[in-house]
Specification:
Number of strands: 9
Strand order of the largest sheet: 2-6-5-4-7
Helix content: 25-40%
CATH superfamily: Cyclic phosphodiesterase
Bound molecules: adenosine-2'-monophosphate
Number of helices: 4
Shape: globular
Number of domains: 1
CATH class: Alpha Beta
Radius of gyration: 17 Å
Structural class: alpha+beta
CATH topology: Cyclic Phosphodiesterase, Chain: A
Length: 188
Amino acid sequence: MRCFLAVALPEEIKEILRGLQEELRAAGAGVRWVRPEGFHLTLKFFGEIPEKKLPSLVQAAEQTARDFEPFELTLSEIGFFPEKGTPRVVWVGLSGELETLKELHRRLEKAFKKTGFPPEKRPFHPHLTLGRVKEPQSTEALRRRAAELSVPGKSFRVEGLTFYRSKLRPDGALYTALATVELVCERE
Ligand code: 2AM
């Protein structure tokens, strides 16, 4: 199965992201928008894994999550990958306790490496994907529209990590939650 680890988002955050999608949709570019129920913050993409590997990944995440207490992130700006030129991905960036998020990501990569999954080579750029560009001809208007919009600076607490299965469909991926691990550090 195709599997990844992510932070699930509260409904009110998904609602804001959905609103931003609506505003950007008006720019008319050929973008495949993420289904609102599918919004998430990816921490690790595993690709295709045998189902029997999942328990060891969950265990590795649990061990790591034991050293972290819940923390807060805030929606920031609309951005694009790549930053300049024809965009492929439209996303919303994050601010707040980013150092904690990065440390959590680093520790997870270390734990998954021990389980046999090599760390991602690209630097970690935390983002919430809104959509993926399918027709790169008409993205000028999309960039212009994004620059006009302001993202509500809404915050949310990261309290757990969710393993998802991703099923690829012609009209976009469908995600199903497989297991959730809580951040449970109890510092003195
Ligand atoms: P994203 O975080 O930029 O949206 C499930 O496919 C999730 O894993 C998506 O959110 C996706 O990107 C992320 N991901 C990371 N690396 C990927 C890859 N090589 N192929 C597909 N998705 C990947």
